[in-house]
Design a protein that fits this description.
With 191 residues, this protein is an alpha+beta fold. It has helices at 11-19, 44-55, 80-94, 133-148, 172-189, and strands spanning 2-8, 32-38, 65-71, 101-106, 113-119. It has a single domain, classed as BirA Bifunctional Protein, domain 2 (2-Layer Sandwich), CATH 3.30.930. A five-stranded antiparallel sheet has the order 1-3-5-4-2, sandwiched between helices.
């Protein structure tokens, strides 16, 4: 599982991206299914208004939008209930369970993935900390892989415990690519 975490300025842009269908003429099903609303409700316009109303409790914050994408490996699937549980676990783990957020499943790629749009400003006007976001996201992904029996992905070296940072980490696809290139190179030498 891969987790990506970004911060931005516009709730309108982020919520629109997550909720709207792409303009594809042969789309058989909706691109987006809302899994969960937390402390918010309504359609796109109402959600943007609600998020901006709370955002105004801390008008000095330049980037109030937290956008998280959680992607499973191709071929892996979870139920919508499991995806909702994953979103709730993410909220608890990263500390935004008391903030406004929506969780949306996208159905437009070969790999199953969800988006979380989070208001970094809470109802008390305090801002959600972004300290060590990438490290916390990597740790969260490893926990979810174990919890849901997903294919385990290596964390970036800098997020590994110190004793594991220098261990050789050869991914299988890189090993296969190296063998393929070596075979081509050997073939060229025999010409």
């Amino acid at each position: 599982m891969i987790g990506k975490i970004m911060m931005g300025k516009s709730f309108r842009g982020c919520i629109s991206y997550c909720l709207e269908d792409k303009r594809e003429p042969n789309a058989a099903r909706n691109r987006a299914d809302v899994l969960q609303y937390n402390l918010c409700f309504g359609d796109k316009r109402e959600l943007v208004q609600q998020f901006n109303d709370v955002r105004n409790l801390n008008p000095r914050l330049a980037k109030p939008v937290l956008h998280i994408t959680l992607s499973l490996s191709p071929g892996e699937r979870l139920t919508q209930e499991q995806l909702t549980e994953m979103a709730e676990d993410c909220a608890r783990e990263l500390g935004f369970e008391k903030n406004q957020f929506i969780a949306v499943e996208h159905n437009d790629t070969r790999h199953q993935h969800i988006h979380l749009v989070v208001n970094r400003v809470g109802f008390d006007g305090k801002t959600l900390s972004d300290s060590n976001n990438f490290k916390r996201m990597a740790a969260f992904c490893r926990k979810m892989e174990l919890k849901f029996g997903l294919r385990q992905v290596l964390s970036p070296r800098r997020f590994l415990p110190e004793g594991q940072r220098n261990l050789p980490r050869i991914a299988e696809h890189k090993k296969q690519l190296r063998q393929h290139i070596q075979g081509r190179f050997d073939w060229l030498l025999h010409l």
